[in-house]
C-alpha cells in the first residue's frame, strides 16, 4: 500500500518505520508546514491515510480524506463530539473510515473484557467501580480517549452509574456517555454515587496505563493494561490501515481484531 501519514510527530515517525518494515510505501508525510499536501489531487495518489494530529485539526483532516475518496484511519483523541458527523457522512457517501481511541492490540482486548466484566458486575451492587489512567506530561486531553472508551463500556452495562466525573477537575462536572447525548451539569450533593470516577494522572514519560477497579467492603477486582512504549499504537494503526484498504464503511478495532 501507498500510505499518507497525516501528523509527523513521534507516532507518525513510528508508523512510517513500521509500515516500511511491513513492505508498504510512504507517499506523503503531512505536517503543519506541508498543508498543501492535503489537497485532493495529492491524497488521491495514495491507498490509505493514517491520521494522528491534534483535537483542533482532526475533523478537518479526516474530512479532506473523505472528500478525496481516500480511506482514512484516525487515532486522534479529544475531538469526538463530532465523530458521529463523520460516521454518518462516511456511510452516506460510501466512504472508508476507521477510528480508534487507542490502536494497541492489548488495549482493544481490554475494551472487550471491560464490557463483559461490567455486564457481570451489574448484578453485584456492593461493588463500586472506578477508572485510573496515567500518561506522559505532554498528553493534551484528560481523561484520555482510552479512559472514555472504558467508561462508555461500563456505563453501557452498569445501571447504577449514569455518567462519569473527572477526579480533581475542579468543577467536577458529571458527563453522560454510553450512547446518551453528552452533557454537563452542576453536581448534586446526593447524586455523586451514580458517577463513575475517572482519575487522570500526567507524569514523566509514561506511555499509558489504564486500570478499571471494582471494590467492595471485602475485596477488590482489577483489570489493567500498561503500554511499554508507543510502538504498539503505531503497529495497530498500520494493521488498521491494512484492514480498511479496499473496504467501504465505518470501522473500529473491534472489526480489525474480530472481537
Uncertain residue ranges: 168-190
Mean pLDDT: 90
Number of strands: 11
Distance between the termini: 25 Å
Give the helix tally: 8
Q: Give the percentage of residues in beta strands.
A: 15-25%
The number of distinct structural domains comes to 2
The second-level CATH architecture of the largest domain is 3-Layer(aba) Sandwich
Structural class: alpha/beta
CATH topology of the largest domain: Rossmann fold
Let me know the largest β-sheet. Answer: 6 strands, parallel
Shape: elongated
CATH evolutionary superfamily of the largest domain: NAD(P)-binding Rossmann-like Domain
Task: Give the C-alpha Rg.
Answer: 19 Å
CATH class term of the largest domain: Alpha Beta
N-to-C SSE string, H for helix and E for strand: EHEHEHEHEHEHEEEEHEH
Amino acid at each position: 500500500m501507498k500510505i499518507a501519514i497525516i501528523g509527523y510527530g513521534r507516532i507518525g515517525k513510528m508508523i512510517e518505520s513500521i509500515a516500511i518494515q511491513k513492505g508498504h510505501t510512504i507517499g506523503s508525510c503531512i505536517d503543519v508546514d506541508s498543508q498543501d499536501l492535503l489537497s485532493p489531487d495529492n491524497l488521491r495518489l495514495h491507498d490509505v491515510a493514517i491520521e494522528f494530529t491534534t483535537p483542533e485539526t482532526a475533523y478537518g483532516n479526516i474530512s479532506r480524506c473523505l472528500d478525496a475518496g481516500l480511506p482514512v484511519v484516525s487515532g486522534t483523541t479529544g475531538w469526538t463530539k463530532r465523530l458521529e458527523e463523520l460516521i454518518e457522512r462516511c456511510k452516506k457517501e460510501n466512504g472508508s473510515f476507521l477510528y480508534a481511541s487507542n490502536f494497541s492490540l492489548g488495549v482493544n482486548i481490554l475494551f472487550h473484557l471491560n464490557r463483559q466484566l461490567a455486564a457481570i458486575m451489574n448484578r453485584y451492587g456492593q461493588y463500586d467501580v472506578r477508572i485510573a489512567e496515567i500518561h506522559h506530561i505532554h498528553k493534551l486531553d484528560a481523561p484520555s480517549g482510552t479512559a472514555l472508551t472504558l467508561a462508555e463500556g461500563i456505563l453501557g452495562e452498569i445501571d447504577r452509574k449514569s455518567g462519569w466525573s473527572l477526579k480533581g477537575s475542579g468543577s467536577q462536572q458529571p458527563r453522560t456517555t454510553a450512547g446518551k447525548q453528552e452533557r454537563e451539569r452542576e453536581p448534586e450533593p446526593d447524586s455523586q454515587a451514580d458517577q463513575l470516577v475517572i482519575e487522570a494522572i500526567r507524569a514523566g514519560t509514561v506511555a499509558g496505563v489504564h486500570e478499571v477497579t471494582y471494590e467492595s467492603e471485602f475485596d477488590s477486582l482489577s483489570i489493567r493494561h500498561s503500554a511499554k512504549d508507543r510502538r504498539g499504537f503505531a503497529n495497530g494503526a498500520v494493521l488498521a490501515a491494512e484492514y480498511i484498504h479496499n473496504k467501504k464503511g465505518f470501522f473500529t478495532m473491534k472489526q480489525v481484531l474480530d472481537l
